[in-house]
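FAQ

Q: What does a record look like?
A: Structure on top, sequence underneath. For example:
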């Protein structure tokens, strides 16, 4: 998912889409795609804002993987973004934020499940939505950011899904202005087990200072 405006990262995103901002010498999206398991041979990029810059960089193939583009013409949330791909998705697929940093290990672990989501234990209250889980570590509900306390399992925006997701109506959020993927996944979880995988590393890049922090982390990991 790479369609967003990246408003919190302005002025950097006035002329560059957020996933194409450079950290440690490469666009964020390159780092994200590099974590995909070898079994994945096709990538669908849901584009929108400044899409032409993403398309010009990656083209129709990148590092042996076919690249397909789907335009999200109205930015109506993550659930809406996945539904924009409904006609081309088959069987099982993974979904990830194109402007977050993950590890190959965590992506592979999520992908090994039929239905799963990556979650990160937070030290910060209230910044992200978090999942409630049952005794078996499976999704039962989602808590909005303002109610999340340190230790909560916040949504890291990486999912293993299949076409059963499309059997459920999208859940509206923000007074109906958007449709949420995680909120819809909670309704799926009422009928099908959705596993929660705890992240070993996750870094969302949402603010200018995150670009500096991400560069330092990635340079230390690749040194």
């Amino acid at each position: 998912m790479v369609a967003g405006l990246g408003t919190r990262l302005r002025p950097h995103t006035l002329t560059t889409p957020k996933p194409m901002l450079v950290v440690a010498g490469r666009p964020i999206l390159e780092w994200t795609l590099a974590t995909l398991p070898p079994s994945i041979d096709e990538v669908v990029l849901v584009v929108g804002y400044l899409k032409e810059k993403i398309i010009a960089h990656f083209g129709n193939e990148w590092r042996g993987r076919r690249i397909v583009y789907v335009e999200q013409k109205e930015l109506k949330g993550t659930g809406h973004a996945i539904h924009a791909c409904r006609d081309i998705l088959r069987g099982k697929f993974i979904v990830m934020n194109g402007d977050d940093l993950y590890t190959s290990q965590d992506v592979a672990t999520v992908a090994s499940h039929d239905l799963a989501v990556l979650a990160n234990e937070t030290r910060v209250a209230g910044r992200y939505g978090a999942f409630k889980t049952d005794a078996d570590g499976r999704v039962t509900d989602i808590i909005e950011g303002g109610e999340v306390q340190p230790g909560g399992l916040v949504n890291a925006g990486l999912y293993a899904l299949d076409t059963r997701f499309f059997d459920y109506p999208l859940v509206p959020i923000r007074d109906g202005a958007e449709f949420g993927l995680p909120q819809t996944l909670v309704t799926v979880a009422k009928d099908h087990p959705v596993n929660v995988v705890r992240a070993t590393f996750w870094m969302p890049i949402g603010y200018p200072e995150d670009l500096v922090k991400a560069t330092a982390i990635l340079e230390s990991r690749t040194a």
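Q: Is there anything notable about this one?
A: The chain has six helices and 15 strands.
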